[in-house]
Amino acid sequence: MRLVLLLLLLILFLLSHPPKIAAESSYVLPYPSFMPGNKFHSVEVVWDKILSFWYFGSFSQFQYNLHQSDQYLVEAKTLFEYKQYVLAMNSLEKSNGFFINSIDSLKSAKEENKDITDKMMLLQNASEKHSEVLQDIDRFTPDLFEWTPEKKYPTLIHIKKNLQEAVEIRRKSYE
Amino acid sequence: MSKNTYFIWYLFLLFGIVIFSYLFIDRNLIYYQILYTGISDLYKFQTTVVYILLIVCLYLTYFYVLRLSLQNKISKQQVFILICVTIFILFLSYPAALSYDVFNYILTSKVLFLYRENPYIVFPTEFINEPYLQFTRAANKIALYGPGWILLTGIPYILSFGTFIGFLLSVKALIVGFYIFTLALIWKITRNIYSIVFFGLNPLVVFETLISSHNDIVMMFFALSSFYLIQKRKFIPALILFLFSVSIKYVTILLLPIFIFVILMQLKRKKINWDRIYIFSAVCMIIGFLFSPIREEFYAWYAVWFLTFITLTPGRKKIIFLSQALCFGLMMRYVPYMISGTYIGLTPFFKEVVTFLPVFGALLYILVQKYIWPKKSSH
After folding, report:
1. Cβ–Cβ gap B122/A60 under 8 Å
2. What value does the mean pLDDT take over residues B32-57?
3. What is the pLDDT of residues A13-49, one digit of tens each?
4. What is the pLDDT of residues B192-227, one digit of tens each?
5. What are residue A168's phi and psi, to 5 degrees?
6. Cα torsion at B146, B147, B153, B154 (round to 10°)?
7. What are phi and psi of B195, to 5 degrees?
8. DSSP assignment, residue B22?
9. CB of B156 within 8 A of CB of B167?
10. Which residues of chain A have a CB within 8 Å of the CB of B127?
């Protein structure tokens, strides 16, 4: 009897305290496109560069930069998964750069007296999603990686530090 | 009815149309609040009856002038006066009585010239505090028109000095300008008063161009200009104008095979049957018109595409007869929505019925005349 009561209490306790699941951002990231090494990758890079002229105006630039940042982040994640750390760091750096540009685009829009409320919300959602992905990467990557190119001195890549910096860049967009 | 009586009647009719157009002022159009009555919403049936009466009267007067021009009973000067009077009076009309497109032109122009954003990427609704959003429809879409047209709207944007009324009147003036240019070109090509009356006073052209300010007339002017320049053997300017026409609303791309054919024939110095060329061009434009439901639906102003070319073939009586029937049907297309106030339910079905019923009627009349009661030959 005592055992049954104990079991009931345990069930009640579990039901009243459902397991906490980390809230996931509803922001959707794109699928990875052509990866570095693919012959179409460089074509895509040139095409994206050309597209940047089509996306004139602060709102358009915001859209363009955020999309590029998303794309390079997804690329970085895929490369990290395949342990291509050097290429992955390069993609992450590009993603960071475009993310900073998207913040700058919004600042320009604000200076032009455009209402940026919706865009700020979008940026915040993107920032949360990016941070989620970056923390996820952090879980399965080493803190440090020594890269030894052929006939050159080895280089130490601070993966954890760079990932933290990337999260920090995204966090700053809240401010 | 004498010509003077007709003229006074026509003036009354035009003023009636102007007053009628103001019954449709949108309640959210803050700039016209003082003129808002809400009559078109409150008295749908009566408004529809008045609309039908106005259209029928306008068609009757139009056919009267057409007959006069066929019988050479109306002079060039008289037609000129009629057209000038039509332009000046209808310039006073409210442009969004039957279609809201003019507001869309204005807002798209604002996205590019005021906000300096690419209208093919940024929606007007992204500018949350934009006051024109209150009365503009389909503002949650990227630009619907070609870059040529958006660039052209830079002229009214500059002339408006930032005011809505200034913008609206400038867009109207721009469209009126192209209407006049088109008529001048038709005159240059045909030297025929009938053609001028046929196109310039056609109720559909008058409503859709001089009242609703649709940009189709701009596209057709450039297309027609390119054909005219080919006749004059100026191929490069013709090509530029043709491309510009395509950049207004894309549909004139359907004329490309004819355009290339005519250039080749001119280069080979072969004789061109221009009457046939214009008929083929009209057919291409009718194809564009018939395929328009893929994108949206048959809109009345799309008739300007083929009417421009049909105008240049005054001898093709059956085609002219059928096109007039279609134009009348297209003008009646507004009736189901006007009377019901909804786009759903039976409205779409009745829109198709009223559009094509006159065409079937006209076809039946032609068939009956040909096979059942053929006209006796004169000899």
Report:
1. yes
2. 94
3. 555 554 444 456 689 999 999 999 899 999 999 999 9
4. 999 999 999 999 999 999 999 999 999 999 999 999
5. -60, -40
6. 170
7. -60, -40
8. G
9. yes
10. 114-115
pLDDT digits (tens, 9 = 90+) for B248-258: 999 999 999 99
Which of B115, B118, B121 shows the shortest C-beta gap to A114?
B115
Closest Cβ–Cβ partner in B117, B118, B128 for A115:
B128
Q: Which residue has the tokens 């530029």?
A: B240
Cβ contacts from A onto B, under 8 A: 37
Residue A21 CA to residue B100 CA, distance in Å, equals: 49
Contact B65, B182 (CB under 8 A): no
What are the chain A neighbours of B122 within 8 Å (beta carbons)? 57, 59-60, 63
Polymer length in residues for chain A: 175
Q: Which of A55, A112, A118 sits opposite B128 (nearest CB)?
A: A118
Q: Report which residue type is found at A162.
A: N
**Number of neighbouring beta carbons within 10 Å of residue A90:** 16
Would you mind telling me the total number of residues written for chain B in this entry? Answer: 379
CB contact under 8 A, A59 and B126: yes
Q: Smallest Cα–Cα separation from B98: which of B305, B331, B289? A: B331
**DSSP notation for B252-270:** GGGGHHHHHHHHHHHHTT-
Long-range contacts of residues A132-141, Cβ cutoff 8 Å, at least 24 apart:
A132/A24, A132/A25, A133/A29, A133/A73, A133/A74, A133/A77, A134/A73, A134/A163, A134/A166, A134/A167, A134/A170, A135/A167, A136/A77, A137/A76, A137/A77, A137/A80, A137/A163, A138/A163, A138/A164, A140/A80, A140/A81, A141/A80, A141/A85
The pLDDT score that the predictor gives to residue B177 is 97
Does residue B377 register a pLDDT over 60? no
Alpha-carbon span A145 to A158, nearest angstrom = 7
- CB contact under 8 Å between B121 and A60, yes or no, is yes
B114 touches chain A (CB under 8 A): no
CB-based contact B284:B258 (threshold 8 Å): yes
- The H or E element that residue A54 is part of is helix A39-54
Token pair of B23 as six digits = 């019954």
Residue B268, Cβ neighbours under 10 Å: how many?
7
- What pLDDT, in 10s, does the model give residues A125-170? 999 999 999 999 999 999 888 888 777 788 888 999 999 999 999 9
